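mind reviewing both lines:
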Amino acid sequence: MVRNGQDGSVLERVQEYDPDALGEIYDRYAGRIYNYIYYRLGDAHLAEDLTGTVFVKMLEAIRNSRAWNVSFSGWLYRIAHNLVVDHFRRCEQDHAAALDERLVAGDQDPVKVVEQQMEGDRLRRAVSQLTYEQSLVITLKFGEGLSNAEVARMIGKTEGAIKSLQFRAMASLRRILEASE
């Protein structure tokens, strides 16, 4: 089942529930998974909770022999994506910007902060309407700053496929954002 290049020996140990290997995998991927979820939801506390849930689900899947087939990192992102989708299904997003202590205590103009939050929410809603692969490529490329080669390795596709996904995703985002104006 382990077929993930540089992670191979660690992943073999993860399948045996080696605590050191589990810690190493968590340290290696938790920040990336958190960023992916945060970029999709815009809520730091929820992103922290769901990041933890990704790793719980990872352990449950390994225990039940339902782990990854090709790309371990791609599999983790798929788990994260599914949790984000489940969150959107459970909760109707409140489109009003939250007034919290950051707006009152910050040095920035509260109106600009609210406008930035609203624009971020608008972009997150648009990205959530893309296909899973398109949203993953956009998040990894622009949210994480990864190269096409890094994204390709991570999700098990060619660089050409990543370029194509990015092009289609950007065209779709443009259409979605224009329609929402």
